[in-house]
Design a protein that fits this description.
It is built from 13 helices and no strands. By secondary structure, it is an all-alpha fold. Helix 5 runs antiparallel to helix 7.
Amino acid sequence: MNDVILPAVMWAVVICCAFPRRRGRDLSVLLAGLFMALSFTVTAGPVYRAVEHLTGDVNVTDLIKHTLFVVAVTFLARAILRAVGPASFARGSRLRRFGALVPLGVLVVQTVAFVAIDRSAGSTTSFMLEFGDQPAAMVYSMAHFVYFGVTLGAVGFACVHSGYQSAPTFVRVGIRFLIAGCAVSVVTAALLVVRDATRVAGLREFSDTLQQGYAPLLLASVLLVALGLGLPPVLGGSTRRQLARQLPELTVGLERMRDRASGDRVSLRFPSGTRMPGDEATPLDEVHRLVVEVRDQMFLNPAFVPTDDEQRVLARSERLVGRLELL
């Protein structure tokens, strides 16, 4: 069942994160979803066997899927920590550079361990069930799942302490799903570490019992993380479009208010369409510009008394600009 659900869920996340396209936005979440979707797609039986046939039936497909998995976890952690993490994780920071070396080390360890595994039994879609009693297989499995558990644990911790309660509702909902998904991910990783260790120790029945909990835990963690990643773009886009429909009306109201407050003074008016060089002004930029001009004119003309309707237009505009800049 997971072979069908997990790829479908992650490809849905990729679609949600791909739109809308916004200038200068971070693509880490999109890349995380893409690599995770590819990892789970390779896991699906027919795809796995097809790739195995192309690569010589030596189980290298398992290494490919877990390499994609590690890359996906790396991009996911980078995106979330950049958004909610401490300032010490800012672009170019020492912590950020150190964090980039860890997944490289994980990939080296799991690749070396994979090469050391005796895979003479042939190709299989149940790699750890077939080869899990070898110490090299234990190291191979633990490398990516310890990284998965520790990284998602750090992400969940950062989310809990991010002060997200002041964010828009859809962001709060998304982060709560992420926190729950990270918690389940840590439990999943711990379960697999114990499974691998007990298998090598010869406790086959106990290891097989733990294996039964892997599929539902992985499904729960992926669904929760997927909801945390996918809901904000979907709900945020809907909210953004709903709020943006109010901008033309507010623009007209602010222009009238500015003209009445300024009279013949036009020196403090920015040209229409003002924006950073090379960029095109958006309707939100226009409302923001007019709010600044209105406030300037009110400061220069203390005798100006806005009507109740004008006060409502100005207050709505300021709230709207603040909300849209957060989306």
